[in-house]
């Protein structure tokens, strides 16, 4: 019979072996730079077979999909996760006007062309989900099916854009509104160590509205006493190292391009998305708890706008960074859906 000390030692050894195994698997992921659509795009990829294209959100990187890359590649899929424009090792044009949905979808179409890929299964989270919906809107011919996390399709409101809508709902301290002014959020973020800032971000997204009053900034956001079980210091360091080098302007420019997206997509007003779709969200997600979103998803509005929506999964007790928090379950959901096609 093992003593408590012996049991603890065994647990530590097993944990270390698990880390070593993960590191060994991560080393199988290939990293390449692809010059296309006027920028250089960093791409992480692994596996062979039908292609699954993963789009990350803010403040994330290709790395947010590490679990899904390993899982789905082991089941016979070619998994591709770029750092989107403005992030990580991909180029970051300085102007917010270079971050419209047309630029991002243009990058992705050009990337697929460069790689000789005709169609993909598309998976997105957060801003990546927004861009995935735009991709399905603009070029449905390139998408076999879409699985989006956290952010449902939000049809264009002819009366006002997202930033104005959020300002009306929550006031100008709401994070989406606070991120609008070029340079302001960057200056605020610079007052906090990047690793600590990443810990704050990964722990604060919902269910309550995220407010960042100007007078206190991100310093006023709580720093968690400990990391959640799904996130390690190694993970935090990876994100922090990349954002220390690049800064946050690229990612923030997605928020700042929202009004331009609204202006430019006027011709698509009322157009349905007719790509086979699955949607997954946690009931503690910041987006799910925006007034009106639950009703839109459950009362038929979402299905009206995305008529080929085949499945909606609501995960109880799960927050915003769902692809990392519930990695195995999300991977299994993706596989179950794309395996039908």
Q: What's a quick, concise take on this entry?
A:
With 341 residues, this protein is an alpha/beta fold.
> How many domains in all?
1
Number of strands: 8
Summarize model confidence as the mean pLDDT.
94
Which fold name is given in CATH as the topology?
Rossmann fold
Strand order of the largest sheet: 1-2-4-3-5-6-7-8
Give the CATH class. Answer: Alpha Beta
Please state the CA-atom Rg, rounded to the nearest Å: 20 Å
Q: What do we call the CATH homologous superfamily?
A: Alpha/Beta hydrolase fold, catalytic domain
Strand content: 5-15%
What's the overall geometry? globular
Task: Work out the helicity level.
Answer: 40-55%
Order of helices and strands, N to C? HEEEHEHEHEHHHHHHHEHHEHH
Summed up, the helix count is 15
Distance between the amino and carboxyl termini: 51 Å
Segments where pLDDT lies below 50 for 5+ residues? 1-17
Helix/sheet category: alpha/beta
Major sheet characteristics: 8 strands, mixed
InterPro entries: AB_hydrolase_1 (IPR000073), AB_hydrolase_fold (IPR029058), Epox_hydrolase-like (IPR000639)
Keywords: Hydrolase
Enzyme class: hydrolase
Pfam family, one: Abhydrolase_1
